[in-house]
Amino acid sequence: MKYLPLSLALAAIPTVALANAEAPDPARIVVTGEGLALPPGTPAYGSVAIDRDRLANSASGRIESILGDVAGFQQFRRSDSRSANPSAQGATLRALGGNASSRTLVLLDGVPMADPFFGYIPFSALVPDRLSVVRVTRGGGLGAFGAGAVAGAIELASATRDQLPTFAASAFYGSRDATELSAGIAPDLGGGYVSLSGRWDRGGGFQTTPKDQRVAATAPAAYDGWSTNLRAVAPLSATSEIQFRGTLFHDDRTLRFKGADSMSEGQDASIRFISRGAWQVDALAYIQARNFSNIVIVAPTPTTSRKSLDQRNTPSTGIGGKIELRPPVGPDHVLRVGADTRIATGDMYEDVYSAAGVVTARRHAGGDQMTTGFFAEDDWTIGSLVLTGGVRADRWTISDGFFRQANGTGVGTLNTAFADRSDWQFSGRAGVLYHLGDAIAVRGAGYTGFRLPTLNELYRPFVVGSVRTEANAALTPEKLKGLEAGVDINPATGVSLSATAFYNKLDDAIANVTDPSNLNARQRRNVDAIVAKGMELTASGRIADFLLSASYAYSHSTVHAPGMRFDGLTPAQSPRHAASATLAWEPEQGPALSATLRYVAKQYEDDLQAYALPDALTVDAVARLPLGHGVTLIARGENLFDEKIYTRLGTDGSIDLGTPRTLWIGVRFSR
Fold first, then answer.
1. pTM
2. Which pLDDT does position 1 carry in this prediction?
3. CA distances from 567 to 298, 479, 513, 522 (A)
4. Contact 595/621 with Cβ under 8 angstroms?
5. Is the pLDDT reported for residue 518 higher than 90?
6. Is residue 247 within 8 Å of residue 265, measured between CB atoms?
7. Which CATH architecture has domain 4-670?
8. SS (HEC) of 325-336
9. What share of the chain in percent tops pLDDT 90?
């Protein structure tokens, strides 16, 4: 990739920092590897935290499944990162409509993780046991990189040195000849530490196609992927440190037919400076080099299949950074001011094939976009009352967009250049948190936000089954307005209950709109609005050795599109009910057991509600047996009762299914 030299240059920085850092005084210097502390007004916006114990002990071992603990979290489809097309892994919250791009801002140590071209999240590269905590905030976001958080934010924090064993490794074997291997070391170095880890998982995959629809070309959803992560933290003074992270990943998958292969890969690097002195500082720079390819196979008869489209190369680059300052303004205020920028550039190359296997068209499309924002927020504590509020001003540009097409011999047939566009977008949020006592707090918040259409939505068409969805270079940004109110109750030590009522309106929502005269033809368009309102409930508690956590979301979403056939209907891929509950038995020593129940209500495949995906209820379980000397025997089970999970319904009657019963046995070692 063309930015590899810069990635390697960034990779050298932590080594130099570690080598040149002055020998620390252990009595004065504490390296945490964390960011700045959360402002006191953060709870006003409501959030759910997933702790490290849960992250390290799930049935699937995959972050997107664990995020399902937060009811209302969803990807575009119900598949996980072993059987989904990578470009469909957009993350969203609050049933704001199915969209393969992420409406939720996903951050890892402050770095936006969305693919620069597609907007999807590389979930397979986000290994849960490398993380310390995940905090999910539903609703509009602000602060650094707040542009893009129209459905909330998912903040992932890397595990700190005190959470990481010096050496850890695990090996699992699962159903359908699946293997999962991981290892990591985290030695102290100078006054800081380095963490190097890697994971490789592969499997023959399950049949996503129902038995009565399989043909000669049908193939299971095989997958093979790996990722490595290097993180280094070094002290610069008693109150400041520098943090580096580099991630490499590669992922190959097959979906539905032999030869229907997809590939995604990435090289990410970031460097972050944290100062916890009188003037607190959080400065960050990052670079991402990503690529994607995908082959579309059609099976016109039960005995034949052919390649119809080869999306052979989609290189993209993301560059960005931020600086946040917290000046000393007194003990009652936490003021944050700063700026951030994100630049995305990408190209799409694809070849179209005829029924005879001859290239009939070669397409090349792409463009650039940039968002630069300035923000200020303050939290003011007045006894039991916390007031919080902030504003953002973002300058966005969409430029150099084009779509070119040539015939099979290379003669140009189409050359379209799209006009550059730019504008300012202003956002704000405000919240209040009032503690009625030690056991109860009430809160309320209002917010606005926006999201630019991705390069993928603007310039790249895609095909799923017999349905082709066209891009739309004229798309405008989505804009959110929202209100919510809630209560948090802690009736006893270790027990917490929370309830939130919300109203969100997403204006100019980007949706895949079906052509009324051809159900196999869709186009991305801005619709008037999607309105989502509902209730979210969470609960957690520990009694003796038993731990219970639960979450439920009711989301009543409708599309406002006067004059359109889908006006008043539920947006695609938006279930009305979602729930999750985990019951665990975790004594301080000895064996441990946990079981997780998840429910997702009926949702529609399309905007016209012609194809309904039935509801699904699944049960997962994990059992751990310590064997001594740092070795633990682990058994995991996904979808234990083998529930049939529908992930897609095609206009031709074709069906895709999600993960069936999957069993794992393995060992984990840490020292």
1. 0.92
2. 43
3. 33, 19, 12, 16
4. yes
5. no
6. no
7. Beta Barrel (2.40)
8. EECCCCCCEEEE
9. 78
